Amino acid sequence: MPTPEDHPNWAKWLYHLGCHLHSRYEQTGSLEDLEAAIIHTETALKAAQDHPNRANWLYHLGCHLHSRYERTGNLQDLQASINHAERAVKDIPEDHPNHAVGLNNLGNHLGSQYRQTGKFEDLNAAINCAEAAVKATPKEHPYHVKWLSNLGKHLHSRYIRTGNLEDLEAAMDHAEAVVMATPEDHPNLAVKLNNLANCFSSRHHRTENPRDLELAIDTWFASWSVPTAPIFFSNT
Predict the structure, then answer these.
(1) By the 8 A CB rule, do 175 and 206 touch?
(2) Which of 84, 89, 157, 208 has the smallest number of CB atoms closer than 10 Å to its CB?
(3) Secondary structure of 176-215 in HEC code, one letter for each residue
């Protein structure tokens, strides 16, 4: 028997259904699952205006919408994902573990907007969010490496825009730390190695040091050689 909409847990269960559908979308690529995840999460939010976990629900809705933006290129979804992420960061207390999660995702959404619009303020805001997320997360936390990787990518993007060598060196330091902290059999190691190789390549173009070119080639080959990596992966 379906749960009545006036049941006190109806909205919460609908929200969790949306999360599970989004997880399945990430595995299968079924756009129907993604659309359903968005609809269910939006409905849950409308039905539970005062729910104590509302900020967390907003954060997840932003993630679902960002996934649809990546799939369809709809800029309205991107802007909505940023709006929801900003609201979630504002509403989640700074000492709550999910605050850093929200900051990291807001930074990623702003990074997507920068790549779409080229607005430098979006890139700087993305870097600020990523730096705050890294600072708020202990080094032994499993997410610290993930946040550090995203910060490195944003800094590399700013180096490409401005030519500031300090940004490139920082991006390289972060990328190296991430590779060192990632197990050799981890599927994401290929992405991390690719990010580091891109940094070596950028420095070679800047300095023409042949050693950097050798390092870039060796690191790209190492990335290609990770046996557990997916056949196709995104570097965004």
Answers:
(1) no
(2) 208
(3) HHHHHHCCCCCCCHHHHHHHHHHHHHHHHHHHCCHHHHHH
Give which of 57, 46, 72, 77 is closest to 17, Cα–Cα: 57
Q: List, in sequence order, the alpha helices (H) in the chain.
A: 10-28, 31-47, 54-72, 75-91, 97-117, 120-136, 142-162, 165-181, 189-207, 210-224
Is the separation of the CB atoms in 20 and 53 below 8 Å? no
Beta-carbon count within 10 A of 227 CB: 9
Q: 50 pLDDT band (50/70/90 cuts)?
A: confident
Q: Which pTM was predicted?
A: 0.87
Whether the Cβ atoms of residue 102 and residue 92 lie closer than 8 Å to each other:
yes
Asked whether the beta carbons of 161 and 122 are under 8 A apart, the reply is no
What are the pLDDT digits (tens) for 156-189? 999 999 999 999 999 999 999 999 999 998 988 9
Contact between 28 and 54 under an 8 Å Cβ cutoff? The reply is no
